[in-house]
Amino acid sequence: MTRILLRDESPRGSRAHLPLFAIRAVARRALQEEGVARGELSILVTGDRAIRRLNARWRGKDASTNVLSFPGRDRFIGDVVISVETCARQGAETGSGFRYTFLFYLVHGILHLLGHDHVRPTQARRMNARTRAILEAAGEG
To answer: pTM score > 0.70 for this model?
Structure first.
């Protein structure tokens, strides 16, 4: 069985919000679709300020980003950190809306933990297609 630890530290006054049960459901579906039957996944929902600090510390990039993934070991799958503020901006810019954008990057982050990457264009196409397929399977497409 998979265990999903979810912490919401999104900034006060942030209008972007998803019910925690919806986040857990999509995360659980992503793991199922990827064949992960056991393990523990940690998800932190935060804002631009916090994710910028993490991005600077761990990736050397002093900028906010939509999602960060930190792989774990053994039964601990890893950590996914996602910024509601960046997802809200990107959802508005692309016309995808907050919910779809947030869930897209949640699944994207989980796929990174499971070994997917998008360094080369073919990898990016495969990873994006896999992300969309998982969202469809979760009823979020």
So the answer is: yes
